[in-house]
Design brief:
Layout (H helix, E strand, L loop, with lengths): L16 H17 L21 E5 L14 E3 L2 E4 L8 E7 L2 H10 L1 H7 L2 H7 L2 H6 L13 H9 L4 E6 L9 E4 L4 H14 E7 L28 E6 L2 E8 L2 E5 L2 H8 L13 E6 L5 H10 L1 E12 L2 E11 L12 H4 L8 E9 L5 H8 L9 E10 L9 E6 L5 H7 L7 E5 L2 E5 L2 H12 L10 H6 L6 E6 H15 L11 H11 L3 E8 L5 E7 L1
Parallel strand pairs: 3-7
Antiparallel strand pairs: 1-2, 4-5, 4-11, 5-6, 6-10, 7-8, 8-9, 9-10, 11-12, 12-13, 14-15, 14-19, 15-16, 16-18, 17-18, 19-20, 20-21
Length: about 550
């Protein structure tokens, strides 16, 4: 029996900066955990996958390299129709792996990754997908030897690829892997995997949205409708886990849900340009809520920005913020004032910095005129701005946010612009305006300003020195501090552990392992030609 899938239910897309940084951190974790981790998440439940294929009564089983059953689910053989998407969904965040061979080898050889995958935190992160990717070709009578993860890293994902998260409906909230220009070897590997582990699938009925059907083929081999000949979306089953794969021309798409694969097939052309970077973490500045869109407009940025990573041996190193200025003249270039850095407590896990060129007197009308591109009288006056953010790993805990503004004369204007529904605590500290969301964060900033507790200036010498270089935009992530805090929050939020007075040894070990991750800094500085010059460092 076959059924038609339900129409996708629209959902709110990703919001403002918190989701942006969570996506950035997710991207860093995905890179660090390797190709297998690129598809890590809970397996979708049958109720959220859309249509079910016909199921026969006999399961198949085989032993994997992990010593577990490769497949205990009933064999599914039917191909079910999958209607065209009801709406257009655009990438909100993405991770571009631009030098796959080098990146995959670096991940395999990285000492931290190798140690972590042998510990409970690594095994828990991999979860049931360890069996999927740990399956051996000979155990499923496939035309390849070795592990499935090696087939992915050496063949299926041997060409530059993008892992993206889409805006829109619920199926779009899982990562989608897109290989824009898959080689013949990658397509052959797909055929081999489908022959060995394929269990039914879905027949996409095109990419046409509503009445705006066009049916034209995309330049990179993707598709815009049924006329372009979309291939079957195959369901791969190993170790009771399902992964969906399909191709359209040379475009290859993988995801954990068939709807998400179809959306990946229907995307506009994707062009990946290595330009010397191994990995880039991207964000669409116009697809993540009004707050981020407004900030991009104030800064004069284009439609997207990317955080570039290079490789030094097996270590990923920030190379800077990559983007285009569509409205030059809105950013200044200056080193962060040391008195401002004193206001950043050392435990701060994420903070941004901006050097703005704004009218001497801040008024709503003047700011509006500048954003509209109208000439503003007088010479712009530089302002430095830092935004501190301490995210939490428990939905019941409130993330802490603080703003540091360099010019005291702007206080009346800032007061008039701030939300009355969500008031912030005000203070003048170290010659700057400070607005904080919590008394505890404000107290920590007071202590770091006075020298009573460490600030980021007391961090490792490479960090303290690197934060003083001239910049126009800056993104700073204490990856070890951030992930260890999220881990402890998540553990404490579990109802069965709330009353625990002692943290279990495995949680303490995981915390220690995560704390070994580095401090990462990306920046860009505007040059005399009005272009952004990227730079970065790690601890």
């Amino acid at each position: 029996m076959t059924t038609q899938p339900p129409n996708p239910t629209p959902a709110k897309g990703p919001g403002g900066p918190p989701k942006l940084l969570l996506a950035v951190v997710a991207g860093l974790v995905l890179v660090a955990a390797g190709v297998g981790a690129l598809k890590l998440a809970r397996a979708p439940s049958s109720s959220s996958e859309g249509p079910r294929a016909a199921i026969s009564s006999e399961p198949t089983q085989a032993a994997s390299a992990e010593g577990s059953t490769v497949s205990g689910v009933p064999v599914q053989t039917a191909i079910v129709e999958l209607p065209a998407p009801s709406s257009v969904y655009q990438p909100a965040f993405w991770v571009d792996v631009l030098q796959p061979k080098t990146v995959h080898q670096a991940v395999k050889d990285n000492q931290w990754v190798r140690e972590t995958t042998q510990q409970p935190v690594g095994r828990g992160f991999l979860g049931p997908w360890a069996v999927f990717f740990g399956t051996r070709g000979q155990d499923i009578k496939a035309r390849f030897s070795g592990l499935v993860v090696d087939l992915f890293s050496d063949a299926l994902l041997a060409d530059p690829y993008r892992v993206l998260w889409l805006t829109g409906e619920r199926s779009a909230h899982v990562p989608v892997v897109v290989v824009p220009e898959a080689s013949d070897g990658a397509l052959a590997a797909l055929g081999t995997l489908v022959a060995a582990a394929g269990q039914g699938g879905f027949s996409p009925q095109g990419c046409d949205v509503g009445s705006g059907a066009s049916g034209e083929a995309l330049p990179d081999g993707g598709a815009r409708g049924a006329a372009a000949g979309l291939d079957t979306i195959h369901r791969l089953v190993l170790g009771d886990q399902s992964l969906f794969v399909a191709r359209a021309g040379k475009r290859l798409v993988l995801s954990m849900r068939p709807h998400a694969v179809l959306l990946g097939l229907c995307l506009d052309p994707i062009e990946l340009k290595p330009q010397g970077n191994a990995v880039e973490l991207g964000v669409a500045l116009n697809q993540n809520g009004r707050a981020l869109q407004s900030l991009a407009s104030i800064l004069g940025l284009g439609a997207e920005a990317r955080l570039a990573l290079g490789l030094e041996g097996t270590a990923f190193t920030p190379k800077g913020i990559v983007g285009e200025l569509h409205k030059p003249g809105r950013l200044a270039a200056a080193a962060l004032d040391e008195s401002m850095l004193k206001l950043v407590p050392e435990p701060t896990t994420v903070f941004f910095s901006f050097a703005l060129a704004l009218p001497a007197t801040l008024e709503a009308s003047l700011l509006k005129a500048q954003l509209a591109g109208e000439p503003v009288k007088g010479t712009p006056v530089p302002r430095q701005l830092a935004v501190l953010w301490n995210p939490r790993g428990d939905a019941e805990l409130t993330s802490e946010v603080a703003v540091i503004w360099s010019r005291l004369e702007d206080e009346p204007f800032l007061d008039s612009m701030l939300s009355k529904a969500h008031p912030l605590l005000h203070r003048r500290l170290c010659g700057h305006l400070v607005l904080a969301s919590s008394a505890s964060l404000l107290k920590a900033m007071e202590a770091s300003c006075s020298g009573g507790s460490p600030s980021v200036l007391s961090a490792a010498p490479a960090v303290a020195k690197g934060l003083k270089v001239p910049s126009s935009l800056g993104v700073n992530v204490d990856l070890g501090g951030l992930l260890s805090r999220l881990l402890l929050d998540g553990f404490a939020s579990d109802g069965s552990t709330r009353s625990a007075k002692v943290t279990p040894p495995e949680i303490e070990a995981a915390k220690k392992q995560l704390e070994a991750l580095p401090f990462l800094h990306w920046h860009a500085v505007v040059d005399d030609k009005g272009q952004l010059v990227p730079g970065g460092f790690r601890s």
